[in-house]
Amino acid sequence: MATQPAGTDRVREPCGECERETDHRVRVEIRTESQTAENAEFSREPYRVTTCRECGAESVTRMNNA
């Protein structure tokens, strides 16, 4: 398994809670949007998830808005 250098998940961007620019932890998650199990495998979408390192506020943005 490949490893990432330390600090690659750290991005400085505005935080709505802190009302200033702070360091955020950024990751991409694959989330299932379907509520039914039979269609779940076809409804996975990537989301950008940021967490403020100061206050812990989380922001989620769907990356595929097709």
Which helices and strands appear, and what pairs or packs with what?
Elements: E1 10-15, E2 20-32, E3 44-52, E4 58-62
Antiparallel strand pairs: 1-2, 2-3, 3-4
Give the neighbour order of strands across the main sheet.
1-2-3-4
- Indicate the low-confidence ranges by residue numbers: none
What structural category arises from helix and sheet content? mainly beta
For the sheet with most strands, the description reads:
4 strands, antiparallel
Q: What proportion strand?
A: over 45%
Enumerate how many helices there are, as a single number: 0
Distance between the termini: 32 Å
Structure overview:
The protein has 66 residues and is mainly β. Helix content is 0%, strand content 50%. It has a four-stranded antiparallel beta sheet, with no helix packed on it. A hairpin with a 5-residue loop joins strand 3 and strand 4. The mean pLDDT is 84.
In short:
The protein has 66 residues and is mainly beta. It has strands at residues 10-15, 20-32, 44-52, 58-62.
Core attributes:
4 strands; mainly beta; four-stranded antiparallel beta sheet; 0% helix; elongated
